[in-house]
Amino acid sequence: VGKYLNSWDGSARPEFDFWVASPGGRVYYFNQNLNVNGTWSVHPGYVTHVLRDYAFEFLRRAAQQDKPFLLLFSPNNPHFTSSPSGKPPRGAEDNLRPPRPAPGDESLYENLAPHRPPSFDKTDASAKPRWFQSLPPLTPDLIAMLETFRRKQLQSLKALDQAVESLLDELARQGKLDDTLVIYLSDNGYFWGEHRIPYGKNSVYEESSRIPFAVRYPRLVAKPRAETRLVANIDIAPTIYDLARIPIPTEVDGRSLVPLLSGNSKTNPSFRWREDLLLEGWPSPAVVDEGRAAYAAIHTGRYVYVETEGDRSELYDLTTDPHQLQNQVGNRTYARVLADLKARLRRTKGKS
Q: Taking all residues of the chain, what is their mean pLDDT, rounded to a whole number?
């Protein structure tokens, strides 16, 4: 229920027996055209409410069948609004076309403080790659657009929060909440002017690559806690296989999160979790003009080492520099760390 893939036209997929999707990556918050179990029609009203109601319908159908189910609920909020032409976004006017809040939420957060982390509109780019050095400072008009966009994003999230809460309430009403694995995550981060990047997501920096990732499953996690080890969205499929007692196919990437959720990993001295993650990115039409090239990075939780094709490498120590302001590639203090991460990145890229 919701968005499927940017490259998918929205038509129903045969592996799902209940389907509600919008066409490709187009996001319109009112009067959205949706494919409902094979039939296209325009749905009046606010799209998050429409999708929520279809998710309700699915949960009620599943309750009548009384068998395991999987629901992928992927609403649009807080994605920017697609242009009326439906063409891919180009420039600030399209990438910062604000999301639209639900009726009644338009005046939320009017006194929201400006977003000014230490990395905002960073001016010292001397140790950064050439593509970064070529970025111009943010203009006052662009900063004003960013602030409006950010406020509209937060306003639009109110309806999403309420939709998620109502679906959990429905599971509780059915008596199934504590037997249901709930995974909550976003598909990517987004820049609000950090690192002089005014918008977008195709970058190795933390604002883009880190996302919220929450799991609720009382059968394994009785009390709320934070997990500091490295996990990624590639771990979702193996986790579902594992909990469903289905063998995990060898070609599936990622690892089951069950040992981390259950806590058994802490009492098993032979258990080993991953020590790093591979991050990769390729230029998109919206950023080619900035001279940005493909990159690959190794992320250990503390260190991020980045190699960009034909450009300067980067190394950041997130313990002392969480905003990634100081590139340590030329710092002799990090020479041993740098050599290790270079080797690990080569091995990891070879496996991928």
A: 91
